Amino acid sequence: FERKNFSDGLVPQRKFIHIGTTSTNNEPRIPLHNLMTTRPSVDIFPEDQYEPNAAATLSRVPCTVCGRSFNSKRGLGVHMRSRHPDELDEERRRVDIKARWSDEEKWMMARKEVELTANGCKHINKQLAVYFANRSVEAIKKLRQRGDYKEKIEQIRGQSALAPEVANLTIRRRPSRSEQDHQVTTSETTPITPFEQSNREILRTLRGYSPVECHSKWRAQELQTIIDRAHLEGKETTLQCLSLYLLGIFPAQGVRHTLTRPPRRPRNRRESRRQQYAVVQRNWDKHKGRCIKSLLNGTDESVMPSQEIMVPYWREVMTQPSPSSCSGEVIQMDHSLERVWSAITEQDLRASRVSLSSSPGPDGITPKSAREVPSGIMLRIMNLILWCGNLPHSIRLARTVFIPKTVTAKRPQDFRPISVPSVLVRQLNAILATRLNSSINWDPRQRGFLPTDGCADNATIVDLVLRHSHKHFRSCYIANLDVSKAFDSLSHASIYDTLRAYGAPKGFVDYVQNTYEGGGTSLNGDGWSSEEFVPARGVKQGDPLSPILFNLVMDRLLRTLPSEIGAKVGNAITNAAAFADDLVLFAETRMGLQVLLDKTLDFLSIVGLKLNADKCFTVGIKGQPKQKCTVLEAQSFYVGSSEIPSLKRTDEWKYLGINFTATGRVRCNPAEDIGPKLQRLTKAPLKPQQRLFALRTVLIPQLYHKLALGSVAIGVLRKTDKLIRYYVRRWLNLPLDVPIAFVHAPPKSGGLGIPSLRWVAPMLRLRRLSNIKWPHLTQNEVASSFLEAEKQRARDRLLAEQNELLSRPAIEKYWANKLYLSVDGSGLREGGHYGPQHGWVSQPTRLLTGKEYMDGIRLRINALPTKSRTTRGRHELERQCRAGCDAPETTNHIMQKCYRSHGRRVARHNCVVNRIKRGLEERGCVVIVEPSLQCESGLNKPDLVALRQNHIDVIDTQIVTDGHSMDDAHQRKINRYDRPDIRTELRRRFEAAGDIEFHSATLNWRGIWSGQSVKRLIAKGLLSKYDSHIISVQVMRGSLGCFKQFMYLSGFSRDWT
């Protein structure tokens, strides 16, 4: 190679012709080797600004947005993409002069042409040009001449000929009871309808039940009389009798409103802290989850408005008139829904029990009292209600309570109304909802309230559509819609009409109509209750049947959307993703998205719902394949006359709890979410064990959804784990060199059980991706390859030392092995053989104070401040025992050998013996403590001899060091007493002819049981699991007593911690 010299110190530049960022030419990037210059182009730098000694400065490319300069256009492009993506979109955007026809536009124009032709319009080209304003008449004319377009016309006409006629399904006025009585029908002239047949089957089932043998308070004979006379008395009279019967077995109690006396004003800070601690502990005892969430969310500043404000507002919302009719196509189902309205079985009752923690309705029937009803009685009650097609008057009324949507809720609209009907109504509606849900062929685009991971399905679909559009430079237009008060505004007429359209049984439709038109509610607030009224619209949030009814209406909406409009993903088209009222629309063109918006708005207005245009937004991605890029363009979309906001590339938005931008999922930082909550948990008046419980069961699981479906880097997960471990060490006062594995290993293996997000997050993502079900994208190669790539990436993140941690047990085993390999955690190796002994670590029981729990954890991990522990790594310092023993001062030495702690060791041993003795006496055994057995081998004194049913059980207790196998120590103890001379002496002394068995209660000084020892004692009925847990705590306390005694006698009278 030849070196060339250039004057004035200038560096030669190689010129390129660029595409994509600034050049509008379509030529490829070609290096021009012959164009070697020594000064910049005149077009870029004027001559009067050029100086020979400033060539290095003049060769840099400046950024027009922030003024920063770069050495090359490539560097400027990287800078623009990372720092100014919105400005880069403006720079890249090009105007289409002769854009290609997309498949979506062809379908829309073909459908419009069929519509215009059917209406007898002439001059079709000019008419179509009005609707397709961005196309010229000549372009429309040429497209209509193409063969593929003509095929679409024929296909649409064929579909129109085969499609059923659209029927106006108007809700007619129901005939009154007198009008129904005057209608004369005879079985000879009128065929039996399915409704009558199902009623006969239900009544036949009621009569076929065998007599119930139960307590007299359930009045089985009175209920049987109601059933026997039902066909004679009629449904109204039967309902009245059933209502009186329910009042008899469930006396009206109502809901108690307890008024708490406000605490007196504290005199000082100490008394204020004590009052706060008392309030938190009282709430903790009532409901741990609610107490923890209230502490994590910070100060609840929500204030419910007064009754004078809440009642008029919500009464107006619930009683506003809604549309009385709904028009649409009748949905053709593959199978009948008659099973929904059939006799209830005992299996249905067991599967639909109301949770014991659920609140009672206005009738005062609690879930516990409902479960006490014999199944035979409950079956008769439920099936009688089915036969009558209506609820008894005593359980029709519901109460409506309000829960704040945010911690700053102060206006009536900031609260969510929750309906609380009777427990019996909830159980019956849960059965009907389960039957209806399993009988409907749901549209695959609706994933809410279904037995599937709908959040994962829809969030991943949105991510797939966005990333696929950018990867293949395809246009995509997305609209995220917000339905205003969807559950509170749905028209009742649309519910009845939709049920009929889906082929629901007449009895079920009548039941729903009767419960909505005849069931009232009262609004309940802070110490007040309004008068009863009947809502005219909306579904009852809190009722098990309401989500299914709402889903049916939204499912009907999805079926009305044009199938040819949507974002193309491989060989499939998807145009919507719905999760209850959270609706996202996709289209390939701007006009297509506007058509979907118009269709959605028309349907929602019919069913009484409205879109909140201010909370809706659109994302417009324009593909530019020639430039090999996509740009975000702000297009105008309308909901009625209101324009929807359009987002830019950098704008973030949330869908189903996951943050997105126009390019896909946004990288999240869980440390930012969990940091403030960890601080609140630190300041909260809780014990250390309560803080750990809150962290393990509530705070960390709150991150799982975002970590599993969002985007997060491994480094961020490690930093979050580090932050969590910092607070754990702070709460427990642990030294910094405590093994990391001790924090993350499960309690059953000896650790604290704090989940490690570094491993749990990829595992959860892999699990949720594996459970994704896309029925409409099953055969789609693009969707399948996208899912497989995401799952493989999650698997790669779960690779640890040639092992794949694909499940939670694998992760727990990984941390347990790392704990046992550490010096301080090796003594916990045998802790995994028996789980209940670790209950005090994972559950915040009242057995231990906060101080005792902290000391117990330090004892467990060998973190007590002995000389060997505090001088670790500094061998030149003195490490001998302070009591003068010829041994290093280790925790094991103090607990097991040092003479200063001998008295406490004896007390620790006796405490275990006394606990076992008490449990044996409670089981009816005769227990002798330390009997003296004079045998040939000498004097033997086992700790306990238990006599039961002419059998003898000998139990000896030992607390051993943790350096050896405890199972071997257990077996040595048994062999110590299981000898012929001792057996002979036992039979002679206690005159027992039965079997003689020898056992040991073997633990180490950390409170860990020998697996063989504790399992044998429990299997023989000599020890309960609860007692084994208590003994483990007592051993731990006794070991702490040994250490305190040693430190006290060593001159440490102050607190050694």
Please state roughly what percent of the residues sit in beta strands, choosing from under 5%, 5-15%, 15-25%, 25-35%, 35-45% or over 45%: 5-15%
Kindly report how far apart the N and C termini lie: 74 Å
Q: Give the low-confidence spans.
A: 1-57, 163-189
CA radius of gyration is 38 Å
Number of strands: 31
Average the pLDDT over all residues and give the rounded result. 86
Q: What's the assembly state of these chains?
A: single chain
Count of helical regions: 42
What profile does the largest beta sheet have?
5 strands, antiparallel
Strand order of the largest sheet: 14-15-9-17-18
Structural class: alpha+beta
The portion of residues assigned to helices is: 40-55%
Outline type: globular
Task: List the main descriptive attributes of the protein structure presented here.
single chain, 1057 residues, Alpha-Beta Plaits, 42 helices, globular, nucleotidyltransferase, zinc ion binding, zinc
What does this structure look like?
The strands form twelve sheets. The chain has a five-stranded antiparallel β-sheet, sandwiched between helices. It is globular and about 120 Å long. Among the domains are: 103-162, no CATH class; 234-251 and 304-319 and 338-439 and 492-536, no CATH class; 443-487 and 555-658, 2-Layer Sandwich (Alpha-Beta Plaits), CATH 3.30.70; 670-822, no CATH class; 880-1050. With 1057 residues, the chain is α+β, with helices and mostly antiparallel strands. The longest helix has 25 residues, at 1025-1049. It has 42 helices and 31 strands. A hairpin with a 2-residue loop joins strand 24 (799-800) and strand 25 (803-804). One of its GO terms (biological process) is proteolysis. InterPro entries: DNA/RNA_pol_sf (IPR043502), Rev_trsase/Diguanyl_cyclase (IPR043128), RT_dom (IPR000477), Znf_C2H2_type (IPR013087). Its EC number is 3.4.23.-, 2.7.7.49.
